[in-house]
Specification:
Largest sheet: 8 strands, parallel, barrel
Radius of gyration: 18 Å
Enzyme class: lyase
Number of domains: 1
CATH superfamily: Aldolase class I
Strand order of the largest sheet: 1-2-3-4-5-8-9-10
CATH class: Alpha Beta
InterPro entries: Aldolase_TIM (IPR013785), OMPdecase_type-2 (IPR011995), OMPdeCOase_dom (IPR001754), RibuloseP-bd_barrel (IPR011060)
Bound molecules: orotidine-5'-monophosphate
Strand content: 15-25%
Oligomer: single chain
Protein name: Orotidine-5'-phosphate decarboxylase
Distance between the termini: 22 Å
CATH topology: TIM Barrel
Catalytic activity: orotidine 5'-phosphate + H(+) = UMP + CO2
Number of strands: 10
Keywords: Decarboxylase, Lyase, Pyrimidine biosynthesis
C-alpha cells in the first residue's frame, strides 16, 4: 500500500487505528478455545467487528510462532482474510545480515501479502535495506520503544545525542517517508515533540495505548503532522475487551471509542 492510499484510508474512515491481533489462546473466550481453528476463528470475529473502524491490522508473529505449524497457518489465513483495504503489518522485529534479511523480506512481502514488517536497526543499513526494495512495501524500524528496557540502550547517550536520536536521524536517510516508518511507544510522551523535530514527515507506528497506559490524546496532540502521520496500535484493550460469547461486540465498542476520539484529533 502506498503512502497516499494509506492517507486516503485515514481520511475516509477518520481513523488512524491499528488493531493488534496478539491472539493468545489462553485469553480468548472459553467457547472458542476447543475449536480446531480457534486462533483464526477469534481473529475473524475481531476483524469482522472492527474493519470499518481501523485502517490497519498488526499481526505479532510471536503469538502464532508459539503454536508451530498450526499457528503459522492461522497467521496466513488471517492475513489473507484481512484483504487489501487495510495496511497489514507483520510485527516480527526482523533484521539480520543482508542475504538473511532478503529471505525475511521475501517471506512477508512475496510469500505473504503484508504491507510492512517491523525491523530492529541494531545490525545497520544492510540489515534494513532488503525491506526497502519492494514497491509499495514498508520497513517499520524500532525508534523509541514503549517498554522500560528502552532506558537500557535507546535512551543512553551516544556522543552528544541519545542513541534513539541517532537511529532516527541515520535510518531516515536509508529510505523515504514513502517506505519507512518508525516505532515510537505511546509511553514515551516526554520525547514526542523532539521526535517530530527529527523526523517531521515519517509515519510513526505507536503501540502502548490501552494496556500499557499510554495516552492517545498526548501522542495525537504532540506527534500528529499535517497529513496525520500516525498509526496508533491497540491490541489487548480491544481484542480482549470481552471474554464471553459476545466478545466481538465488546471489541467493536472499544474500537468505536478509539475511532471517535481519533476523529476529534484529526485535522
Ligand atoms: O513493535 C511493536 O509493535 C511494539 C513496539 C514497542 O515499543 N512496544 C510494543 O508494545 N510493541 C508491540 O505492540 C503491541 C502492544 O500491545 P498492547 O499493549 O496489548 O496494546 C504488542 O504486539 C507489542 O509487541
Amino acid at each position: 500500500m502506498t503512502r497516499n492510499e494509506l492517507l486516503q484510508q485515514i481520511q475516509t474512515k477518520r481513523s488512524y487505528l491499528c488493531v493488534g491481533l496478539d491472539t493468545d489462546i489462553n485469553k480468548i473466550p472459553a467457547h472458542l478455545r476447543n475449536h480446531p481453528d480457534a486462533i483464526f476463528e477469534f481473529n475473524k470475529a475481531i476483524i469482522d467487528a472492527t474493519r470499518d473502524l481501523c485502517v490497519s491490522y498488526k499481526i505479532n508473529t510471536a503469538f502464532y510462532e508459539a503454536y508451530g505449524v498450526r499457528g503459522w497457518q492461522a497467521l496466513e489465513k488471517t492475513v489473507h482474510y484481512i484483504g487489501n483495504e487495510h495496511f497489514k503489518i507483520a510485527d516480527a522485529k526482523r533484521g539480520d545480515i543482508g542475504n538473511t534479511s532478503d529471505q525475511y523480506a521475501k517471506a512477508f512481502f512475496e510469500n505473504l501479502p503484508f504491507d510492512a514488517v517491523t525491523v530492529a536497526p541494531y545490525m545497520g543499513s544492510d540489515s534494513v535495506q532488503p525491506f526497502l526494495k519492494y514497491e509499495g512495501k514498508w520497513a517499520i524500524v524500532l525508534g523509541l520503544t514503549s517498554n522500560k528496557g528502552a532506558a537500557d540502550f535507546e535512551l543512553q547517550s551516544c556522543g552528544d545525542e541519545l542513541l534513539y536520536e541517532k537511529v532516527l536521524k541515520t535510518v531516515s536517510q536509508w529510505g523515504t517517508p514513502e517506505n519507512l516508518m518508525f516505532v515510537v511507544g505511546a509511553t514515551q510522551s516526554d520525547s514526542f515533540i523532539n521526535i517530530r523535530k527529527l523526523i517531521p514527515d515519517h509515519f510513526l507506528l505507536v503501540p502502548g495505548v490501552g494496556a500499557q497506559g499510554g495516552s492517545l490524546q498526548e501522542i495525537s496532540e504532540k506527534a500528529m503532522n499535517a497529513s496525520c502521520g500516525l498509526l496508533v496500535n491497540v491490541s489487548r484493550d480491544i481484542i480482549y475487551a470481552g471474554s464471553e460469547e459476545n466478545f466481538a461486540v465488546a471489541a467493536r465498542n472499544k474500537a468505536i471509542n478509539y475511532q471517535k476520539e481519533m476523529h476529534k484529533y484529526l485535522k
